[in-house]
């Protein structure tokens, strides 16, 4: 695992002083389009039209930020039945976390139909398309969507999903949110966060392997174990460091840490779902390929669903 380090001052801003409009504009000017949401995501979603209902739930009007308009889509099973449990799968809350997006798409492509007989399946493959295209954690306003699933959200990406669920009166019974922990968390994103907020940065030990983040106020350990067991058939589970921690948090069990998700505005805290978990894949591992990372995300979702077939019966 990558050792924790204290890093030098970030390239933007003054150490100890939070960013203002000028620093945020300077940061935004450095961001560049590096891949295509239309080609990588929208084209695949279009291919699901035969078997699934596809709804545009919002669009991000980012022309004013030098970007473009991004239509946002949800994929759901056609035979929606309010008597069945509802499972929400989200990807790309942090757009740079590639296997989260492609794991959600792969799940739809290969697994979702077989589970639709028991569940209402609702998948949001890429919540943050600007972040996907620029390989970025934040929105153009330097806001972290995965701290923004709150009332009066500062991130349209988060607000749009919550608004859709509220308007449609959808109350998920379970929610699996697909993420990655990467080496760039230490080399770029945590230093940028510290600079933005005017605080001192201390990097994490980055775990080598897959782990989960649960809700500390409703942990559901048997559910988390089922997800980890499923993923362990595909890739290795991260081991805790010498302090018994993953990313600076004490483990609740091997491969699992937890936080108060609603208080922190995390995506899995957006509803009152009984069963929630956030996946964390490590794509920079020498022991895992990009394809294995995608498969691990799919295994996390199917492991959750297999458990829920009994738990929610």
Automatic annotation (TrEMBL):
Report domain Peptidase M14 positions: 33-293
GO MF annotations in UniProt: hydrolase activity, acting on ester bonds; metallocarboxypeptidase activity; zinc ion binding
Q: Which PROSITE patterns match?
A: PEPTIDASE_M14 (PS52035)
For the biological process aspect of GO, one term held by this record is: proteolysis
Q: Which residues form a coiled coil?
A: none
Concerning InterPro entries, the annotation shows: DUF2817, Peptidase_M14
The UniProt entry, under SUPFAM superfamilies, shows:
Zn-dependent exopeptidases (SSF53187)
The record's CDD domains line, in alphabetical order, gives: M14_REP34-like
What family does the Swiss-Prot or TrEMBL record give for this protein?
Belongs to the peptidase M14 family.
- Which protein, by its recorded name, is this? Peptidase
